[in-house]
Write a structure and sequence with these properties.
This protein has 13 helices and 21 strands. It has 2 domains: 7-68 and 109-184 and 283-352, FAD/NAD(P)-binding domain (3-Layer(bba) Sandwich), CATH 3.50.50.60; 76-97 and 186-280, D-Amino Acid Oxidase, Chain A, domain 2 (2-Layer Sandwich), CATH 3.30.9. Strand 19 and strand 20 form a beta hairpin. Strands 1, 2, 7, 8, 9, 10, 19 and 20 form an 8-stranded mixed β-sheet that branches. Strands 4, 5, 12, 13, 14, 15, 16 and 17 form an 8-stranded mixed β-sheet that branches. Helix 1 (18-29) packs parallel to helix 4. With 436 residues, the protein is α+β, with helices and mostly antiparallel strands. The structure holds flavin-adenine dinucleotide. Flavin-adenine dinucleotide binds next to helix 1, strand 2, strand 8 and helix 9.
Length: 436
Amino acid sequence: MAVGQERSADALILGGGPAGSTAAALLAGAGVETLIVEGDPFPRFHVGESLLPHTLPLLDRLGVHQTVRDLPHTQRKDGASFVTHDGSKHVAYWFEDGFPPAIPHAYQVRRDEFDDALLANARRCGARVLGGWRATAPRWDGKRLVGLTVRDPDGREQFIRSRVLLDASGQSSFLASRMGWRFPYPMHRKAAAVSHFRGVWLPPGREAGNITIALTDQGWFWLIPFADGTVSVGAVLDVERWRALGSAPEDVFAAAVEATPEVARRLAGAAPLLPFAAIQNFSYRVMQVGGDGYCLVGDAAGFLDPVFSTGVFLATTTAAAAAQDVIEALARHGRVDAADLAPTTALTRSLQRLFFSFIRAYYDPHFLAFFFSPSGALEIPAAIVSLLAADVLRPGRWRRTSRYRALLALARAQRWSVRLGRPLVEPLAAGPASRA
Ligand SMILES: Cc1cc2nc3c(=O)[nH]c(=O)nc-3n(C[C@H](O)[C@H](O)[C@H](O)COP(=O)(O)OP(=O)(O)OC[C@H]3O[C@@H](n4cnc5c(N)ncnc54)[C@H](O)[C@@H]3O)c2cc1C
């Protein structure tokens, strides 16, 4: 492999997904020399199509809110709906019912369009993009990361020196994989089969724009509608269940639909528009998310489960925080140390703790019994909506999450009351239970 000339950038961003593009736009906009290395040709298919309301202020800050709203497939989303496998129980949470002032809507987006728009915005802000270039190895000077070896589209390798690397490489978690910092969650092993469909039944009225999460045995489905009436449908299953149903994603998907009357009803007469994609090994923790000369943002810093659509919010929020730390550190002393990144790493860990606990609760049937029968007591519905909207950044988070913790306590009480034969609320007949 020929070794070409050396390049350099003050901020090197690995990955042009939502995390990488967000960080790059903010850094370049602040005058930092910024270079994105993105391996895939854009636009490209990606899962992660349902956004949360509290992602919108950042889209405003990036100046892309209107662009995103005007993309051909963008669908306004006013809430999130949940339904049991047979349709016997259903609940819709509306974002306008969160703790005030609520952001009353978000969007469903096709990620080929959304990611392309964010990357174009990063370019407009002054970031350079090496499209079709792939990082192959990090380079260290002691414990400081000093750059990446990359391969260009013709297969030539060269070194890019950086003052800081923001690793926004998504699920591949480039740095953590190579450094042995990425560990799967052994009790939360899921796989997803996904395609886009035409002809899916949608609920009437404004609920038609909602994401719907439908329970199934050892898993759940998402149904995410787009503006042209097409719908992204994915089945997320325990890997054991996946293996019991088949191996090819289209076979597993079909068998899971057949076992889920509510989804079968909605998909009767629907036709897939894309080959099915299988997405596996997507639940992992990352032990090290920042150090001298580097920071991991978005999925590269860890991922558990997509049930509450928190991924793009986490990706863009952690990327924006990292960009801010980098801008301040470079202005202060011309380099970026681990200590400079402490605000970002603390934010990343605290958001992961909160959302991961919410996700784990979803796999507890006793929690779900309350989730499907929200009473107005203790402001619990508003607390659930605030979490579903990712209203976790503004002051007053303690009050909002304390209501959520009350719900966790009720779920524990429900467990005991079921054992005693006197449940507090009616238990669910079937659920997505896992041992997460
Ligand atoms: C089944 C499933 C469903 C989901 N549904 C939702 C949802 O509805 N809503 C939601 O908000 N989130 C959802 N998510 C999560 C969401 O997809 C991610 O959180 C989000 O895409 C993370 O953005 P990112 O920028 O960190 O990574 P990505 O969007 O994955 O971008 C990473 C980029 O890095 C590039 N890259 C990687 N390695 C290299 C390399 N070595 N060299 C060069 N380039 C490289 C990749 O090509 C890619 O473009 C879902 C996740 C899964 C698994």
